[in-house]
């Protein structure tokens, strides 16, 4: 029972919950049928408002305090959210999804490097091995989505660079939240989302009100999925290393296409199923290993009882 209350276990559970909640996001994006900048506007504005409401409820109503937010950490988290939302929308708009997803899958690598620099945290050999195998599985899975050869042109290269920008911004976001426990990250992410939406308004050629069905899809992901999932994932980074949260997040890359298969009938290829199986196996092994670590680090209840017992 003590293992369930261990910080490592709490962080893992939060990260798994946030990732699983995020998995239908790709399906809803497809159902909305919006272009990149229009998607950025609606997702950013709706999720930003939801983040703000969540922050106001917990901070002003429950905790009844006003945190200090004019800090460097707060500004970095805001910039990370702007970069994350903007780069992903632009990358999907100009480059093959395959290239973008492979680039975004480097999040654990950036997270491990940043955690080492800012926090002095290192990955175990087992975690490094699992991360390498997960990246191989993702490479197999993502490349299996395209049957034609990807042309190496300027748009593809720019999409890959933007995808790396998404990975770096996510990793930096989780690392800063773990480093500075006082930063009101929900408020920071909300501000960043709204600023990203404003940027989308400035860059979009034409904005329009989507049809009701499309609007319901984008509204659900903006109001429910994004705030709760990323809020939970960010909170998980306060209990476990950002590289661990980033590694678990890669489940979304594998499970997302299954939602698309169920929702709109896009059948996954054999390569996607094989690569996804590798990822799921490695992440399961990693989570079991982390559970053993948490169990080993938890105090033995019998030891606590012994200290109160008297010897004859």
Task: Please write out the topology.
Elements: H1 7-22, H2 25-32, H3 36-62, H4 72-94, H5 97-104, H6 107-118, H7 125-143, H8 154-179, H9 185-203, H10 212-236, H11 242-249, H12 251-264, H13 270-297, H14 301-306
Helix pairs in contact: 1-10, 1-11, 1-13, 2-10, 2-12, 3-4, 3-9, 3-10, 4-8, 4-9, 5-7, 5-8, 6-8, 6-11, 7-13, 8-11
Characterization of this structure:
This protein has helices at 7-22, 25-32, 36-62, 72-94, 97-104, 107-118, 125-143, 154-179, 185-203, 212-236, 242-249, 251-264, 270-297, 301-306. It has 312 residues and is mainly α. It has one domain. Helix 2 (25-32) packs antiparallel against helix 10 (212-236) and helix 8 (154-179) crosses helix 11.
Write down the secondary-structure element order. Answer: HHHHHHHHHHHHHH
Amount of beta strand = under 5%
Number of helices: 14
- What gyration radius follows from the Cα positions, in whole Å? 21 Å
Question: How many angstroms does the end-to-end distance come to?
Answer: 31 Å
The main pleated sheet reads as: none
Number of E-type strands: 0
User: SS-based structural class?
Assistant: mainly alpha
User: What low-confidence regions span 5 or more consecutive residues with pLDDT below 50?
Assistant: 300-312
From the structure provided, what is the oligomeric state, counting identical versus distinct chains? Answer: single chain
Q: What is the global morphology?
A: globular
Please estimate the helix content. over 70%
Mean pLDDT over the residues:
80
Instruction: Kindly give the count of domains.
Output: 1
């Amino acid at each position: 029972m003590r293992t369930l209350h261990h910080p490592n276990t709490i962080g893992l559970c939060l990260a798994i919950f946030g990732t699983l909640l995020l998995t239908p996001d790709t399906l809803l994006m497809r159902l909305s049928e919006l272009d990149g900048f229009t998607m950025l506007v609606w997702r950013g504005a709706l999720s930003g408002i939801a983040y703000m409401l969540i922050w106001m409820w917990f901070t002003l109503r429950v905790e009844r305090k006003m945190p200090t937010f004019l800090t460097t950490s707060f500004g970095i988290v805001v910039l990370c959210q702007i970069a994350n939302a903007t780069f992903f929308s632009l990358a999907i708009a100009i480059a093959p999804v395959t290239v973008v997803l492979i680039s975004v899958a480097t999040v654990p690598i950036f997270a491990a490097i940043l955690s080492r620099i800012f926090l002095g945290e290192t990955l175990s050999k087992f975690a490094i091995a699992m991360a390498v195998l997960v990246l191989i599985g993702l490479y197999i899975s993502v490349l299996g989505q395209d049957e034609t050869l990807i042309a190496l042109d300027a748009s593809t290269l720019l999409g890959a660079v933007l995808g790396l920008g998404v990975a770096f911004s996510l990793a930096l976001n989780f690392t800063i939240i773990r480093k500075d426990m006082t930063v009101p990250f929900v408020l920071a992410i909300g501000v960043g989302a709204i600023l990203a939406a404003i940027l989308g308004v400035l860059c979009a050629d034409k904005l329009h009100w989507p049809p009701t069905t499309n609007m319901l899809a984008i509204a659900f992901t903006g109001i429910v999925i994004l705030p709760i999932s990323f809020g939970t994932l960010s909170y998980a980074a306060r209990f476990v290393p950002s590289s661990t949260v980033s590694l678990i997040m890669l489940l979304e890359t594998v499970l997302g296409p299954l939602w698309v298969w169920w929702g709109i009938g896009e059948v996954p290829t054999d390569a996607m199923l094989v690569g996804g199986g590798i990822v799921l196996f490695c992440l399961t092994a990693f989570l079991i290993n982390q559970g053993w670590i948490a169990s080993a680090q938890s105090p033995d209840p019998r030891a606590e009882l012994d200290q109160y017992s008297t010897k004859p």
